[in-house]
Structures are given as C-alpha cells and as structure tokens.
Design brief:
alpha/beta; Rossmann fold
Amino acid sequence: MRVLAISGSPRRNGNTDILIHTALDVLAAEGVETDFLSLADHPVKPCIACGGCFRGDEVRCVQKDPAFDGILDRVAAAQGILVGSPVYFGSATPQTMALLDRIGYVARRHPDLLRRKVGAAVVVARRAGQNFTFAQLNYFFLIAEMIVPGSNYWNVAFGREKGQVQNDTEGLDTVKTLARNMAWLMKKLDG
C-alpha cells in the first residue's frame, strides 16, 4: 500500500510540509509506503479545458508540462492520496487546485484512477479560512468517488511563519489520528 502526499504550498519546508510529514511518519510506522510531492518543486500549469484527456484510451493529460510529467503514474500507483494546502484568501492555493483540476479531469475520463482510493486533506491557516479550504479539498475526493477517513477533529492546524504549526499540538495530534485512520482504512480495503 502506498500513499501519495501532495503539499500544495509554494514554500518549501513550511507549515504544510510539516503537517504532511507528520502524517507520513505515522503512515510509515503503520507499514504504509509513502511518496511525497511538493508543488514548490513542481509548478504545475492549470487545466486549459482542451478536452485532450477525453480523447483516446490512454490515461493522460495532453498539455506539455514537464512539472506534471509522471504525476498521473504516481497517482495511479497510490491507494491513498493526502493533500495539504495552506489557506490563501479563504481557499486552497492556486498550485493545489491546478494539480487537482488536471488530475480530476483525467479521472472524469478514467474514473478508476481515483475511485475507491482513500483521500484525506490537511489544511494550515494563519487565522481563518480553514473550514472552506478543508471542504474544498474534500469536495474533490468526494466527486472522484474516493473514501474519506475522519479524525478526532477537522484536519486543520494554525501557523503563519515557517515552523509555527509545531506549536499547535492539537492540530498535530489531529493529523496523527487522521494518518492512523487512513492506514487502518487502507488495510481494510486491501484485505
């Protein structure tokens, strides 16, 4: 079993990455293979609604974009997808949504790309906007027919400057619980 964890933050090693790696540490301890993708390192172009993903039988996006190359293979190889984003003006980052839109359109043509995989979101906010962003990411999982595990609270944490999220012990504990539940669910679905 493998989880692809996507950090939608344009800041390397920031609060979103810290939350993602907190979850990945728990998943690895639960025996789940992990794969980390930082959108700070892969500035994916947005979907251009060309419809190319609906032509032919190949699971692909026809847009020429070196940052996107190989991502669909990583999604296909994963049984779980963990997406993290900071809150930017009340929503997920443009980087996060560009990637999810591209994957989502391909999945509309090839539903088994995401169907019945486990999807989970973590969100970092300075002060507000976390509930909408959390819902926004979960809407993606739900429309793709993914299975969304819960935690003991919403999967959000607070911090603005790099590392501040480490002061939010409740947020970190919530993400750890989410990761344990994600591992448990993936094992049940695999078994």
